[in-house]
């Protein structure tokens, strides 16, 4: 199984009757049915004149068609380009101009995909779902008219499988090209570390158009031949209902999802006893959340850290193995880690520095950006731009992005540390911190807080708490309350958006 399509071809051949996808309306698709429909989709691509190496985009939430899209693109040898469904027409237009797709499959294209966006090079536009758009052809009709046969796969292990555009925490997305072999190799290492197996039951609370959800749900589930329950988009109440109904055993998500799902009032009367493992990543993880999931609710919970450039996971805690609080565990087998300072010198054990990795699961490169690729993968080491430290046992602790580090009064302050303290306050549901210009200190610290349900917005009380828990120079100069935080699809904080909000609101 060295290409994405080969995974599902093998599952269809070996155990085709096994349930692959379960939908919220109660219907299901077997592995054989999923692969047969994906083969029809591949035939549609080929009939349209789309050749191996061409790009085909999709604009869909979690759905039957999205997973068929991933498999079908691999069968046809084309490069899949999943697009965040929250993207605007301006953002999508920039991605199209960059990767120049030959086709697209979309669910409710609406204003995000206006007709003027499509050049003559786009030879196929398929619409999935209700509300047919003018100028588009129906996805189900296209599959019905396609040849009902399994095609000879056209992908090879070292071919590009997909282009994932960075989530835009900096405001400047770039196309990250990932190969079949690297994606599968990293997935197999992670499955081994987390002991996923055929008897597990997955639930898609993450969007599968992002690599976190693509890997942890779609790819891992397919590799072990398990069943995946498809939640179209995250909804805390619906997720808990599906967990009970389908006896879900494993979940992966970002911290805010679990904060919302596992509130006491939501859990009342819920039977989630089948749950055996939660992997939480994709952003700062509050220590209080992990302690609650493990100790109060009784679900083994691990933290992980990964990057799209490494084909998903770099390090993860192992289930059942004690790990220091706040760590992301140790690297996967076959991955090396080192830390360097700004001058490239080695950093002593336990001291902060830029995390750099070396392995066989790197990205192929940044689409159309060879200089940036060479800079990021210099000397065969992935330069992450993330600050971390490694203890004597190899446990990795993520401190923050280098560019997000705040320098105040000459001290280096990492937002994640302050956010973890804010998270621990009972009146705080979510929090984010940025540096703001300060004539005296160089930079000051501004906190944005989403209040917990029913909690009063008392900034003075929160600041008083921070003064007890943090060194004086780490205490925010002010608290701004907001209804929600700007997040990427993977749950990371869009700090540049907070900076723009601050300027607009003159905070």
In terms of DSSP E residues, the strand content is 25-35%
Q: In which order are the strands of the major sheet placed?
A: 4-3-5-6-7
Average pLDDT score: 91
CATH first level of the domain at 31-177:
Alpha Beta
Low-confidence stretches: none
User: How many helices?
Assistant: 15
CATH fold topology of the domain at 31-177: Rossmann fold
From the 3D coordinates, which CATH architecture of the domain at 31-177 would you assign?
A: 3-Layer(aba) Sandwich
Number of distinct beta strands:
26
Overall description:
The longest helix has 17 residues, at 31-47. The chain has a 5-stranded parallel beta sheet with strand order 4-3-5-6-7. It has a 5-stranded mixed beta sheet with strand order 12-13-14-15-16, sandwiched between helices. A 4-stranded mixed beta sheet has the order 2-1-11-10, sandwiched between helices. Among the domains are: 31-177, Rossmann fold (3-Layer(aba) Sandwich), CATH 3.40.50.980; 405-505, ANL, C-terminal domain (GMP Synthetase, Chain A, domain 3, 2-Layer Sandwich). Helices cover 31% and strands 25% of the residues. Helix 1 (4-15) packs across helix 2 (31-47) and helix 1 crosses helix 3. It contains 15 helices and 26 strands. With 507 residues, the protein is of the alpha/beta class. The mean pLDDT is 91.
């Amino acid at each position: 199984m060295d290409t994405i399509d080969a995974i599902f071809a093998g599952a269809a051949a070996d155990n085709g009757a096994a349930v692959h996808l379960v939908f919220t309306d109660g219907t299901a698709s077997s592995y054989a049915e999923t692969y047969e429909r994906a083969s029809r989709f591949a035939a549609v691509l080929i009939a349209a004149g789309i050749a191996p190496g061409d790009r085909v985009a999709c604009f869909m939430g979690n759905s039957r068609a999205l997973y068929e899209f991933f498999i079908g693109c691999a069968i046809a040898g084309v490069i899949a380009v999943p697009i965040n469904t929250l993207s605007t027409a301006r953002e999508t237009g920039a991605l199209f101009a960059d990767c120049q797709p030959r086709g697209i499959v979309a669910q409710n294209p609406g204003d995000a995909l206006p007709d003027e966006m499509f050049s003559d090079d786009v030879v196929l536009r398929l619409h999935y779902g209700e509300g047919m758009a003018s100028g588009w052809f129906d996805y189900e009709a296209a599959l019905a008219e396609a040849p009902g046969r399994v095609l000879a796969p056209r992908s090879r292990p070292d071919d590009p499988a997909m282009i994932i555009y960075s989530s835009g925490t900096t405001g400047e997305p770039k196309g990250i090209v990932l190969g079949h072999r690297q994606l599968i190799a990293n997935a197999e290492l992670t499955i081994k570390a987390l002991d996923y197996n055929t008897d597990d039951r997955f639930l898609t609370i993450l969007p599968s158009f992002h690599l976190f959800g693509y890997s942890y749900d779609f790819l891992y589930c397919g590799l072990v031949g398990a069943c995946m329950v498809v939640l179209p988009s995250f909804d805390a109440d619906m997720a808990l209902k599906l967990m009970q109904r389908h006896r879900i055993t494993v979940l992966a998500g970002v911290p805010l999802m679990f904060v919302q799902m596992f509130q006491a009032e939501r859990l009342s009367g819920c039977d989630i006893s089948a749950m055996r493992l939660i992997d939480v990543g994709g952003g700062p993880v509050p220590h209080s959340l992990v302690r609650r999931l493990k100790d109060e609710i009784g679900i083994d919970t691990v933290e992980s850290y990964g990057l799209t450039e490494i084909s998903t996971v770099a390090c993860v805690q192992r289930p059942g193995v004690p790990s220091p609080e706040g760590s992301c565990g140790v690297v996967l087998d076959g991955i090396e880690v080192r830390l360097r300072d700004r001058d490239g010198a080695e950093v002593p054990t336990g001291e902060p520095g830029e995390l750099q990795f070396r392995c066989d699961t790197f990205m192929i490169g940044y689409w159309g950006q060879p200089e940036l690729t060479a800079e990021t993968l210099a000397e065969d080491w992935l330069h992450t731009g993330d600050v971390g430290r490694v203890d004597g046992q190899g446990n990795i602790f993520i401190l923050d992005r280098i560019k997000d580090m705040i320098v105040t009064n000459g001290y280096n302050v990492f937002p994640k540390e302050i956010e973890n303290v804010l998270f621990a306050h009972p009146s705080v549901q979510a929090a984010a911190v940025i540096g703001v210009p300060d004539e005296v200190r160089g930079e000051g610290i501004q906190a944005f807080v989403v209040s917990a349900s029913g909690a009063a917005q008392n900034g003075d009380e929160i600041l008083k708490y921070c003064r007890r828990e943090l060194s004086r120079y780490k205490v925010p100069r002010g608290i701004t309350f907001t209804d929600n935080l700007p997040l990427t699809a993977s749950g990371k904080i869009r700090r540049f958006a907070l900076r723009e909000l601050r300027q607009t609101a003159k905070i």
